[in-house]
Every structure is written in C-alpha cells, then in structure tokens.
Amino acid sequence: MMAVVLAGCAKEQPNATPEGAVQEFIELMSSFHGNPSEAQSLFLMLSERAKSSLRARAERYGAASGKTIAPSAMIVPARLAPRFRAQGYSSEVVGRHALVEIAGTQPHERAQIPCVYEGDGWRIDLVLPDLPPLPKRGDGTR
Predict the structure, then answer these.
(1) What CATH number was assigned to the domain covering residues 16-124?
(2) What percentage of residues in the chain have a pLDDT greater than 70?
C-alpha cells in the first residue's frame, strides 16, 4: 500500500513530454560554459542520431588533430540555443516524433526543435549537416 502512495508522489521527469525535454535542454544550454560534466548531461539529452553525428565529428577531429575529444565536447551552445528568451512551448506529436515550437516575446522570436521518443523519454533530435567526404591524396589514401 505504501508503494502506491509513493509512486503517486513521484515527480515527472522533464523528458516525459517533448516540451519538457526542450525546456530542460535550453535551460542547461543557456548556463553552459564548457564544463565537461554539463556537456555530458547535454549529450545524454540528445537522440541516438544526434549522438552518432557528434561521435563522427569527434572522431574526425581526433584523426585530424591527433587529440582525443569526447563527443560531448562537440556541443557548441552558440549554434544550438535560441537567441531569445523562451516564453512558451508547444508541440505537434506524430507517433515517436515531435516538433516543439519555442515562442519568445516578439512575433519573430520563434524556433522549432525536433524531438524523438527513445528509450524512457523524449530526446532532442538535432539534425546536423552531413560531414563532407574526406579529401583523398593523389595515391588514393586519405
């Protein structure tokens, strides 16, 4: 009987809804200043597709520089966070996919963030541009 009462008091996880996942991501992103543990937290909020893309970028950076870099270190706040203060969130959900619209105070302050339901909740499904192919040398090697 006690377990039922405690289960009813459990706080809902932010990623239980697409809006909650985006709001949590934006809040963490707005205070992010390169701390590796915060970068890892942001990385864990991403979809598998987005994580895979960041892993590929980190591998390519490592191959070019000779340095190992964590995929989470590839997160660049200036490229991912809206440039306005979010005032409201709404979403359109179709199956496992959602598009969350963020609204600011001005009519032109709008952004859309794709999400996908994976595992135990909604994840930010950042779509990053494909990496260009690596140039080949004259002998066919890279």
Answers:
(1) 3.10.450
(2) 85
